[in-house]
Amino acid sequence: xxxxxxxxxxxxxxxxxxxxxxxxxxxxxxxxxxxxxxxxxxxxxxxxxxxxxxxxxxxxxxxxxxxxxxxxxxxxxxxxxxxxxxxxxxxxxx
Length: 94
Description:
Strand order of the largest sheet: 1-2-3-4
Number of strands: 4
Order of helices and strands: HHHHEEEE
Structural class: alpha+beta
Largest sheet: 4 strands, antiparallel
Number of domains: 1
Strand content: 25-35%
Helix content: 40-55%
Number of helices: 4
Distance between the termini: 49 Å
């Protein structure tokens, strides 16, 4: 019984690791990217800007990662490539 529970727990953890990034993970990655791009006086607004983002969809990209469509809160849809690194999910510019 214990082995069965351990196996189920392990499989659940592995399947969670291999899936698309969550809404929160996408927002965090985009916030990091925006912080690097924006001047210091705008960086304080980044959390408020990213809070308005809505993830529409993500699809598997080849050779790795996911292509995600994100609505920016102003009606514009942004397509970003999300790749898992040792530091978590990273948004790549296209």
